[in-house]
Every structure is written in C-alpha cells, then in structure tokens.
Amino acid sequence: MSAMRAANTRICSRFAKPLVVPAPSARPKLLKPLAPRVGVLESLSIDEDGEITWDVVLPNTEDTDRISWPSESVLDGYQLRPGQVPAAAPTSTLPTRPDSLKRSNKPVVLVRDTNAWCPFCERVWLALEEKAVWLALEEKAVPYDCVLIELYNKPEWYKELVPTSLVPAVSFSEDGAVVWESKDILLALEERFPHANPLLPTDEEEKQKALEFLVELEACGIDKTGYAFMTGGRMIGRSAGSAFDQPPPDMAELEAAFVKSLEWFEGSALSRHEGPYLLGAEFSMLDIMMISSLERIGAGLPKFRNFNIRSNPAYPNTAAWFAALAERPAYQKVSSDDQTLQLLFQRMMGLTPGAAAAATRTSAAAAAAAAAAAFAKTQAEVAAAAASEKELQAAKNEAYDALQASAGDVVRDILAKSGVTRYQASPYGATTLSVNGHKPRVALPVREAVEKQVVRVMKALLLGSAGPKPDTSIAAAFGSVAAAFLRNRHQDCGQLGELSPAAAEQLCVACTQALTQSYADGVEALVFTPPEQGSAAAAASAEAAAKIKANKEAIVDDILQKSGIARRGRRSGSTYVSINGNKSQVSPAVRNAVTFHLDRLTTLLLTGSAGPRVTEPEAAAVGAAALAFFRNRASAPRDMSAAATVQFRAACDAVLADIY
C-alpha cells in the first residue's frame, strides 16, 4: 500500500498549475449525416414475421456491388419487444402478463428472468433447448414460449401463481399445471416428454442410478463452496446484519473447501464413466444441473481469485467436461460470455479483480510437474526469457518517464486537440467557462477528468493496473476521450513523439487498459476476428450487427442518458440546446456523432472494415465516450448469444483503436 501511495504522489505531482487551452483555429463544423459509402451498412429491414435482412456496400468496390445476408441462421427466434423489458429477446417471448401463460399455443411456457443471468433459469432453458433442437424426428421436438420477469420488480400475479415467488417456473399447456424449482421442472419435463431427446437413461435401473448420482453431486456442494470462495463468503445484496457486516472470512478456509469439492468432482464424479460427461458419452440432466453454476464460477474465479478451473492441468477431466459442453449448440445459445458475468459480479457483489487475473493455481502434483519442466529448460532459454522481460520493463519505464516528465504538456495537448475543449458556439456543447469576463478556461471537471486519466495510464505503466474507474459518468466520458486520443495520437502530445517503438507500444497498451476500464473495473480489451462468410465469426458478427441496428434508437438514447456525454449545467458545460424556443434537447450534432460511430461499429461487424473516420475531433470525442460506454452495456444471453457478445465487444475495441 505504501508503494501505491508513493506512486500516486509521484504521479499526481505533475499537475500543479491551472491549464488554459488556446482557442481553436477554426470554428467546429456540424457533423454531417452518414451517407452511403464504401464499406457501410446501407439498409436494414424487418418484416412482419420479425425476419431481418440487410444490404452492405462491400469495401473497396463500386457502390453497385452489394451483398445481402439473410438472417435465418443467426437470428432464429429473435424478437423485438417495443415498450417492454428487455426491448428485444433472443427467443420467442410473450408479454409479461398472467394471460400469456394461457394464450400460448405451445406445450410449455417458461417463466424466467429478463437478464438470463439466473443459473436456475438457465438449467430449464438449456433443457428445453436440448429438447427443442432434437433432430431425430421433428415431431419429437418440444417447442416453448418464454415470459420474462424482472427479478427486482416481480408482478403480483406471479407472486400469487408461485408460492416461493422465485424463478424459474413452467406452465404446461396440456393441463395448466404450474411447476417451480428447477430440479422439479427438469423431472417434470422428462416425465411429460420422455421421447424428446431424453436427458435421463430410459432404462429404469440406470435411471435410478443416475438420480442417486445426482443426489451425490448436489451433496458435494461444489456450487456453494465455489460461490463462497469467489465472493469471499458474500452473495448478492447488502443489508444490515448480512454477511457484508460480519468480520471478513478466512479466504484460505474458503479456498480449501472449494478445492476439496473440486477434487471430488474431478476424481470421483467425472471419472465414474468413460466419456466427457457425467454419465460418460451421453449428455444428461446431471450436466445441466451442474453447468449453470460452474459456468459462473469458472468465469469469476480467474478474474477475482486467480484460480482457473476450465483449463487447469491439475483438473483435466473438468477441463474436458467444460470443452464438451461448449461444443453443444443448445448450450451456446443459453450461456453467457465471461465479461458479462464478471461485470455482473462486480456490480452486484462488489467484487474487485485480482492482481493477476489470468493466473492459474494448480495442485501439488501439477506444480511439481511444472517445476520439473522449468528445470529442464536450457540456460539459453532461461536467459532469453529473462532478457525479454528486462526489455519489456525497460520499454514501460521509458514510456512512464517520458509521460511523467511532460504530463502537463500532454494534458494541454489532449485538451486542445482531442475535441473535448468546445466553446459556446460549438454544436457539440460547450466545455469552457468564462467567469467575470476573464479569458475562457476549460471547465474544471473536464480538466480534472483528463488529468486523472493520464494518471491512470501512468499507473498502468508503473504498477500494471490503471486502478479504479472514474467515479462519475462525466469523468468516465472525458477520460475515455483522453485515453483514446493519447493512444492514437501520442506523437502529438508533449515529447512522446520521441519514444522508441517498444516504449510507444507499451504506452498504447496502458492507454488501452485505461480506456477499456473507463466505465468498468478490470475489463480486458478483446481482439476482433474479421468475419469471413460462412465462418463462426461471421455468424456472431451478423447477429450482433443486426441486433444493434434493430435497437439503434434505444441504444443511442441509453448512451446519451447514462454515459456522461449528455450534460446540463455550468460546471462541466452543457450539450443541450433549444431550437426555435422549443424544449431543450441533446444537440443534434452530439446525437449524430453517436449514431455515426454505431454505424461504423455495425459496418465493421458485417464487412471487417469500419470505413472512414470522422474529421471533426469533437465528433471523435463523442464517439470515443459512446463506444467505451456501450461495450460494457450489452450482455449475453439477454441481448445476444455469448459468441455475438464477445465479437461485439471486440468490434467496439477495434473501432476505439481507430477513432482518431
């Protein structure tokens, strides 16, 4: 802690003088509406059946060369839900009303949470998907509808219908019976639809053995010990007298309890039958009962406790089990991506990322094997690794020293050139203030946000972590601009143009970390996979692009309302205008800039090229804040599949790298 304080003192001492930014040489221009151009999404249509198609102008071709990609393979079941929560859903849903359970013409209606984060809802959803995608005989499939319930705003009719008021619940159309509790629902599905991809052995004796095995799995407590270890003994919610108010638990004890459960799962449960699943070669209800919680634990432990269970050499059977499940289409549809779950745990449980998020703990045997392998390395290999690490640290030190030496000039250049400094005539909203007739100065919150983001970049270079995200949305918005500009245009800031290539690269890495984590702590930037027609990346990209386009108006409003881009008041300037005496609204130029960058994002997803950048730095500044915020808003599987969510976030990161 003392080292951190010393580093903070050393870094923050660079900002002692108020900053006055010179006026721009030319008045900023209004952002022109996006016109069709090479590599740009030109049109998107949704017919009355909800089928989505779009036309894209291919990059590096004449405007007459277009491609039209149909949506059936990537948006099967996707549905818009205007005026409802959520506004769109990846599967067929009914309005959140009591009569929806009776109106459905399908055998099963599943009532689940709106966010699709609940592990118990995922169990039932996965079972229904496994039965719905059964391909042996079409008539054996079990089609279903969903009704979505907000966990913190459950309607009274649902509380009356389900005594526990918990989700999930299932209504069977045949007789109107309602069943709740996920295990009871799974058993009811097997009883009512035994021939639709049976999830338990059909032989009665084997079925009984499987159910007894399931009791053992539940008794091992790997889900409870895993959540306890990941959360430090806490669960969602803070209230007086809760675990949050108790003395901190012994983390060593929590880890030991989880490892004991994991070793039983690895050595006893997964080795009982030959094959990757709990019953051997056949996927079953037992896998469904275990994966929903272990999916969440597997996503959270590497981030918050530096413990990897999905690809840990100490637990090969567990790794093979995760890998086999990841190949199943039904699981791909209902599972979440890691960043969604990690962001959820941070917000709902107050967790903070570990110091070395990608570290992997191993058993004593695996550690011994690793030590033996390391000992077997030649002296040349050891020396080469040490030299490489030394060169990397030298590059970081060079970048840090240069940034510290010219921090004041760097901040001035960011303020003057990035588009965050806007005078009263700017259509993007003013960020300068003139007090008592004095020369206009950049509003204090704007200047402080830029300064603090530069400090975060310096911390990333010096300490390996940028530290906590900005404490307000306005600070995050201006901080995003600062990090994006510094990464892409560092040669125009202070004396940073004199950095060696290696030091410049490390500066970019640090800026990327600060930018990606402007709105969420501990988030890692992702690498975008260009879509090649027919590839998995193309399908995921197409799904993400179509959902963004279909919900673009709502997305723009969400960004403007919550990102800190739209502001009122004197302290940080205002982006609201009143036209012809009408009620004030967000400046059209600001809205256009957000829309433009969403179009660049969807174009990149569909074609692999984002197309031309904006020329106005003010519009680029709005775009940087918009995409930095938006990348952490969408989530799987509420908005799109896990694969599409990963591709979407990676595309945001790619466009952010190309803002200036």
Features:
alpha+beta, Globin-like, Glutaredoxin, five-stranded mixed beta sheet, 14 strands, 660 residues, three-stranded antiparallel beta sheet, 3 domains
Describe the structure.
The chain has 23 helices and 14 strands. Strand 11 and strand 12 form a beta hairpin. The strands form five sheets. A five-stranded mixed sheet has the order 6-8-7-9-10, with helices on one face. The chain has a three-stranded antiparallel sheet with strand order 1-2-3, covered by helices on one side. Helix 16 (444-463) crosses helix 17 (473-489). The protein folds into three domains: 2-27 and 391-516, Globin-like, CATH 1.10.490; 88-294, 3-Layer(aba) Sandwich (Glutaredoxin); 536-656, Phycocyanins (Globin-like), CATH 1.10.490.20. By secondary structure, it is an alpha+beta fold. Pfam families: GST_C_2 (PF13410), GST_N_2 (PF13409). Residues 204-351 form the GST C-terminal domain. InterPro entries: Glutathione-S-Trfase_C-like, Glutathione-S-Trfase_C_sf, Glutathione_S-Trfase, Glutathione_S-Trfase_N, GST_Omega/HSP26, Thioredoxin-like_sf.
